[in-house]
# Entry
Amino acid sequence: MAKVATVAKAETVDKAMPVAEAPPAPSEIEQLIQASRDALTDSMVERLTVTGANAMEIVDRLNEEATRDAIHTALDRLTELHRIGALDTLFDLVGIVHASKSASTDVIVERLFMFVEQMMNTFGSDNLARLAEGATGAMEDAVKETADAKPTGGLFSTLSLLTKPESQKSLMFLLSLGDKLQKRCCD
# Structure
């Protein structure tokens, strides 16, 4: 009987005192969120805030019609360059320009500017200007003179043309010019 009373007493105590239930185990996501909160420092929060603000600014700019059109145009052109194989060529060219920039020294740049200066002085000289003006005038005169002339045609007309002293003089000039050019280029 004592045993029954103990059991009855224990049942009464269990009913009278509610047992504190164990809190449910946090899920993995809650654990991850809590770990993130614990790991973030003030400077990290500040950087995340600034990054988020910058991202929103970019997204805001994408809402502008001109920006959106520019990006679409750039993407279309990029796609076209890729389709025709020019994208590789473009990047090769950028690589060459970068290599040239990296390889250029002060001496090379100085020589390049000296060459450009010499070419400008040569093309800017009075002698070259007179030569160009004379050659241009001679060509214009020749065009005007031959524009009205009607070729008569045939082998005998060509032989007749060769008997004229101005034709012979012109041919001698052209032959001499060719000879002198060849000698100057080869020597």
About this structure: The mean pLDDT is 80. Residues 126-148 form the longest helix (23 residues). Residues 68-103 form one domain. DSSP finds nine helices and no strands in the chain.
